[in-house]
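Supplementary material to the annual report.
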Amino acid sequence: MMRFPALHALVLIFVISSLSACSIQKQTSKDPTRTGSEGLQLTLIDNLPKEIVVEKDEQPIIFSIDVRNKGAYPETLQGAEFIGFVWFSGYDPKAMPIEPVGIALTPIEGRNPANPAGGQALVDFSAKILPQNLNVGKYSPKLLANVCYRYQTVANPDVCIEPDPLATTLSRVTPVCRAKDASLGTQGAPVAIDKIEQTTLPNEIQFKITIKNVGKGEIVDPAASCSSQGSALLTRQNLDRVKVSSVKIGAEGKELACRPLDENNIARIIDGTGYIICTLSKKDITLKTAYVTPLTIKLEYDYKQSVEKQITINKIAFS
Amino acid sequence: MKKHIACSVFILLLLVSCGNSQQQKPLPEVRSGMDGLAMEFVKNAPPAVIFESTSFPAILRVKNIGAYSISKDASAILSLAVERDYTIITTLETSSRVEQGSDKNEAKFSVEGKSIVNTKGDEEVISYTLTAGKLEPQSETHISNVIASICYPYSTELVTSVCIDTDPNGLRPIKKSCSQENLPFSAGQGAPVAITSIEVFMLPSADTQQIVPQFYITIENKGKGEVAHRNTFQQLCQRSANPTQGSISYQDFNTLFITASLSNEKLTCALRDQASKLDPNEKEGIVRLKSKKDVVRCFGNPVNMLLEAYTAPLKVQLDYGYTQSLATEYTIRKPVR
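Predicted assembly:
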């Protein structure tokens, strides 16, 4: 009895996948280091016991954070603009001050063909448990190790420019390429250019570029301060804002006009997804036949993410 | 094949057990339960039947199953009450930890509570020798009662972590370490008076960019006895009034003192008018239980709203006297002649 519905479902899945394969072309990055949905990856090194027992004396402890650049930016450290802050939150500074309050990261190289694993840095914070400000018993804060860093997403898929898709010339009948929607996947960054949908209109070619937050954190407007001091001041207006640095087409790098963008070329991301429409005027197309050309999209943003760790400090008194 | 599987399972178990032995054991939790001192008459002391004009023992085992230690300086009092026409208290067996009080029926003693080095608490055995009196000529037997009352100072100490949520309305979009939440405490704190819940409020003040942490602390008498003022509780177990302590009044019952701190800074506790009327000089910190329960509102110093949410240590301490009683009976019989 169960065979027929199962068979039907299989056939349906096959048909759907065939159809979708027809309409959207999967185009992943040519460079394997330019894939993945992570930028910086934080790991709190587990160097502490389950329960830290203190009595009367101050107890120093070290919180170590392993920061790895799992993304593709910056490709090289030379000339790269790298901004990154690491800090802790969630603790009571009167009971357990942590110093320094925040640490500015030194540039960490992204994944590249010469360093496919990406760069790494170890950041140490010194904390001091002050038993005089604790009560006899347990104090269990949930520590958040936060990082906020500037990152870039670069995608350069090949697109097919068909100036006149309705033409009946021989070149149209057997074209070099056909304009298709392209699914790009990820580009080695927490914000990905997910999809490019292409529409050819009488006077222009439109590229609808879908931008997605594929990481585990929040996108912050690069104009807002995202350090230990500024993080608490962030408002909803500062979040989910990506700067579209450039959208260029062709080898000569013709800049496309994109919309909708706020001041400073800021695109909005809503519920993790946003889009922009960039247009190429047909006046700028010199060839009359279809051709393949690279479309280079560059996004810039700050990205904030956190990892948490519950610690327990048990103050005991023998007297 | 089966042998191999059994062998592999055994080796795995061995490895797992080896691994566990390396792990640090958490320290025992001693501040739990809803009892302070617990007492019982030792079996056959007093015996069920005694003959007139004979001596017999009345022995009490008093155990401190709470988390507060009763010291010699502020000792507990055990008072034995008998029917004077039928029984006389002859002696109280004293020791280094048990002293006689102002009367023969009073024993002053100290007993340690539960601690991380003594997780079960200490106990004391207090022994009296009683002598049965003569029965009336017409009586063959008489059922007599003995009542043991203990009055002791005790303290409830709650130490917990509380979230200071600088964005209680969730307006900021960033991930928070913790959020404002109420704290229930159903297991007690190893004392007869328990803090059963703390409601947490963060009162934002838009003008000053500060929030004021506020706590509604629910206090309940969960033990088997009565709460009394920490300065006068001893009189409840003393036959003769101590002139230095003044007389005990109804206001001394159900009265306790509260002190609370957040991040080692004292909280201000607002108390009901009726509590403050008790003693104008000592109104700060006095709580009066009504139907064994009260809710106290305490608030802390303002906290900068521009800080991220954090967890702070909170301590609430209640100081009070406590009294409870236990009775048993024995039959005084005339010897057969």
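Chain A has a mean pLDDT of 85.
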